[in-house]
Structure formats: C-alpha cells, structure tokens
Design brief:
The complex is a heterodimer of chains A (about 90) and B (about 375). Chain A is α+β, with helices and mostly antiparallel strands and about 90 residues long. Chain A is built from 1 helix and 5 strands; from the N terminus they run βββββα. In chain A, strands 3-2-1-4-5 form a 5-stranded antiparallel beta sheet, with no helix packed on it. Chain B folds into 3 domains: about 130 residues, HypD, alpha/beta domain 1 (Rossmann fold), CATH 3.40.50.11750; about 140 residues, 3-Layer(aba) Sandwich (Rossmann fold); about 50 residues, no CATH class. Chain B is about 40% helix and about 20% strand. Chain B is α/β, with parallel strands linked by helices. Chain B starts with 9 loop residues before the first helix and ends in a 6-residue tail after the last helix. The relative contact order of chain B is 0.16. Classes of the chains: A alpha+beta (about 90), B alpha/beta (about 375).
Chain lengths: ~90, ~375
Amino acid sequence: MCLAVPGRLVQWLDRDPLMARGWVEFEGVRRECHLACVPEASVGDFVLVHAGVALGIVDAQQAEQTLRELRAAGEATSPQFGEDDA
Amino acid sequence: MKYVDEYRNQKDAEQLLRAIHRRATRRWTIMEVCGGQTHGLLRYGIDEALADVVELIHGPGCPVCVTPAEQIDRAIELAERPDVLLTTFGDMLRVPGSRRSLATARSTGARVRAVYSPLDALMLAEREPDLQIIFFAVGFETTTPATALAVQQAARRGLHNFSLLTAHVRVLPAMEAILRSPDNRVQAFLAAGHVCTVTGQEAYEVPCRRHQVPIVVTGFEPIDLLRGILACVDQLESGRCEVESRYRRCAHREGNPQARRIIEEVFEPCDQPWRGFGMMPQGGLRLREMWREFDATSRFTETASICEVDDRCRSGDVLSGRIRPMQCPAFGKECTPDSPLGAPMVSGEGACAAYFQFHPTIQNAAVDSPGRKT
C-alpha cells in the first residue's frame, strides 16, 4: 500500500494551495492528481503519486547519479557501490 | 516506466549481489520494515540469492495487517447502517475482523465500496448528498497526506456527509518497539522509501544512535533493495552506524515539508493498538480537536465490539519478525489467500501472502503434502 508511482506532470489544472490539481501521465495513461504537496512542480517534472496525491518530485539529478554509479561499478574491477552517495 | 525500469536491470543486480557477497564476512540479520519491500525481495528471489550472507526478516510495515480486528468490526457496523456508504482501499475488504470481513458484510447487504483515494470518497460525498460517506482510513505516513487533504478539502467544500474511521499508523514507534524487545535480532533496518518521501529521515537518528543500528532508506525495485542491503552490510562490516539514503531520487533528508504540514494540521499522534502487537505508544494518529466533526466514531454512536481473533493465526509473531510465515502451523493449510485466518495472508503487502505467492519450495510443500511440517 506504500507503493507510489512516478508519472510526468503534463498540465496544471488548479493552482489553489489546497485544491491544487493537474494531469499526470503514467506510460501514456493520464490521471488527474492532487498537487497540494508539490506546489513547486513544473510541467515536465516526474511526480511520485500515491492514492491520487503527488508526494514528491523525482530528483532527476540524483537518479542520473545513481545510474552513473551503477555503470562505474560495472566497469571497475573491484566495485565500490555508492561510496559517494552517503 | 521511467525511474522504475532502470532499477530492474539484471546485470546491475548480479553486480550488486557479488558486491554484497564480497563485502560480508559473516551472516547479518536485516529487517525490511515495509511490506511492499518484502514482496519485492521475494518476487525477485533476493532473499534466496543472499541467504548465506544476509538473513532478511520481515517487518510490520503492512498497514492492513496491523489494523485491529475490532476496528474492522466497527467499520462493518457502520457499513450496515442504512444511511452509510463505507469506502476504503481494496486491500482492506477481505481482511477478517473478529467474525467477518467487509467483503462478507457487503455480500449480506452492507454498503461498502473500494476506492483508489480518500479524495475519490470525497467526490462520492458530493455526488450522494443523502448518504453519509465514511472513509475507513488505513495506512502509514505515505497515505496520511491524502487522508488529511481529504479532510481539509471536505471542510472547504462544506461536505458535512463525509467522515473518517481512522486507523492510520506511524512507522517509527514500531521500529523502536522491535529494537526494545528483549528477543530482538535486528542488526540493521531497510527503511521504507515512500514513508521517508513524506517524513524525511531525521527522526531515525534517535533509534539509530540509541540502539546502535544502521538504518538505510531505500526503494522498492530490485536494484534499490540491493543497494540498500549493500549499504547495511557495509556499515555493519565497518562497525559504523548511520542513517543514510540509497533512494535519493525520491526521498530527501527533510522529507516533503508541505506534506508534513498538511498531516500535522489535521492529525496528532496517539497511542493505538496494533493487531498482533498490542498497544503501540504513539503508534497511531487521531484527528485534532478542530477536525473532530469529521470523526465517524464521534458522529455515529456505536456499540463497543467484543472481539475474539482466531488464535490459530500467529500474525503478531510474523509481523514482529519472530517467526517466518512458514513457521506458523496454519500456513498453507488452514490459512491460505482463499481462506485467510489473518491479515498478512490477504494483503498485497502481507509477508504470508508474499511467501505463499513467490516462495516456490514453500508453495510446493504446502500444495504437495498438506500435513507436512515446514
């Protein structure tokens, strides 16, 4: 039940702080989501949605950093995963 | 799906498995708190692949499982009122109360409907002004913002036919209860990523220091889980004890301040009984005084339920990591997903359901020789 799914914010519908809503796209499927917890989200951002509510914005830089570490570890002779991620 | 598929890469998983094996000089005991992570570990066979260096014990992070039977009885009682439509998450419907589940009650006329979000229940309240719409709110901190938002929106929209039957729970008191227990075996925790998306991880510093236990926040995909386990093993091997995140794309140190604010405006911590655990100090949330009009238990007078739970179910021992699901004598015999004795066999996050679904040897043993002791 604690699963949350990343989807791309494609349009803001309401900017009211309490009623904030927008269209979020999950693999081509659009759903209206509540955005009161992510007022700073911009169109194009990926938001993490649980029970119809966006709980946070996926940090694209951190995601890229993790993948870089995985690739680096794959190439290294003695992998040291995530040393600079602490 | 972006931010999901990249974390299911088999080559990366194999690298990480090798790294964990290389780093471990002995077998360590790690608890994953969240039931969603339990299912991930079993689904991808990570528990088996690491069995020689890591014992994974499964934590209580299944909100449906820890919801007390008497609260389910109360939900059924409310759903049977002619003026009420009771809504809740689909996971909750088949969980047995002391005698019946919400699904059984529905088959005999109670008005019960599964919803995806408490905010969908709010839409029902708008559409059905002659009915009292009650949302049976279960869930950890991941789910609480949605419920709190529903209450605030109901107040704004003047929806007086909407209320909550609350069974929200907090993850940290449960982790502390496990660490305080005299028979605790947990040496490190994998903390639930999406709880931390909301709450942040600062509060984990206290149990981390007090009990000298590494706490690593991680996600739900196999690469996230393996990175989390490697970080735990690395801390344990080097004698360190820190709170760290291996899920930085989704969980920041301070969590989500807006989500935290919304929760704090609506709810306050309270002592709450957990199914299988008993009273959990500060383990639940209740509506603050100013929102009490949205509390279904004060809106509707009800008879107190006397409740006896099936004592063949050892869910308390399973949820606290004392036994594995297959060590319960009823597992796979009197208790199956089709005919569950307890919540962990029903829920999408329950450890018993995960073993029944994904653990081939257990499943074969249960199917081939029903009398066999596992």
